[in-house]
Specification:
about 160 residues; Alpha-D-Glucose-1,6-Bisphosphate, Chain A, domain 4; 6-stranded antiparallel β-sheet; 4 helices; 6 strands; about 30% helix; globular
C-alpha cells in the first residue's frame, strides 16, 4: 500500500475553461508554474517540463474531464526521486461551475513519504486556490507568495521552515 492525498474545490467557470487553464502552458505558467513555466500543452503520451527542470509525463487526458500525470513526486531516505501519479478530475456542475479534484498517490510508507504527502498536499491546495483566482478573476496569487520564487527559484519546501 502507498500513501496518497486528495484536495478539491469549486471553480466558478465551465469545465472547458478550467481544464484549459491546466493544459494550456501559457495559462498554467500564469498562476502555477510561474518560475520556468510549462514547456508545452498537456497531450496524452507526451512529456512536458514544468519549472525549468521537472519532467511531467501525461499518462491520460480526457478533454474537459480528466488529466493523469506521472512525475518525480517522491523522494526516498537517500534523497533519490521516485514517481508518483497525479489525477485531476473536472466535474461540470449544474450551476455552470466546475468541481476540481486533485489526487496524488504512490509515496512510500516511510518518513520521507509522509513528508512528501504533506508537502504535495500543501502544493496542490495552493495550486487549486491559485487556479480559482486566476480563472475567475485573472489574479496571480503566487506573485510574491514564495520567497524562493521571488529569487527566481521554484518552490520545493515551504519558505517558512527556513525561518523557524
Amino acid at each position: 500500500m502507498s500513501l496518497a492525498i486528495r484536495v478539491g474545490g469549486r471553480v466558478g467557470r465551465p469545465a472547458a475553461e478550467v481544464f484549459d487553464a491546466v493544459v494550456n502552458p501559457k495559462k498554467l505558467s500564469s498562476y502555477f508554474t510561474t518560475v520556468g513555466g510549462a514547456s508545452a500543452p498537456l497531450v496524452k503520451g507526451t512529456t512536458v517540463t514544468w519549472w525549468k527542470d521537472a519532467p511531467v509525463e501525461v499518462i491520460d487526458l480526457v478533454q474537459d474531464e480528466l488529466i493523469v500525470l506521472r512525475w518525480d513526486g517522491g523522494t526516498d531516505a537517500d534523497n533519490v526521486r521516485y514517481k508518483t501519479t497525479v489525477e485531476m478530475k473536472f466535474d461540470a456542475l449544474d450551476d455552470g461551475g466546475t468541481m476540481v479534484t486533485i489526487s496524488e498517490n504512490g509515496w512510500r510508507e516511510d518518513d520521507p513519504g509522509r513528508r512528501g504527502t504533506y508537502l504535495n498536499c500543501e502544493g496542490w491546495s495552493n495550486m487549486l486556490c491559485c487556479m480559482k483566482a486566476f480563472v475567475e478573476y485573472g489574479i496571480n496569487l503566487r506573485d510574491g507568495m514564495f520567497l524562493s520564487e521571488m529569487r527566481g527559484v521554484p518552490a520545493e519546501a515551504p519558505d517558512y521552515e527556513k525561518l523557524s
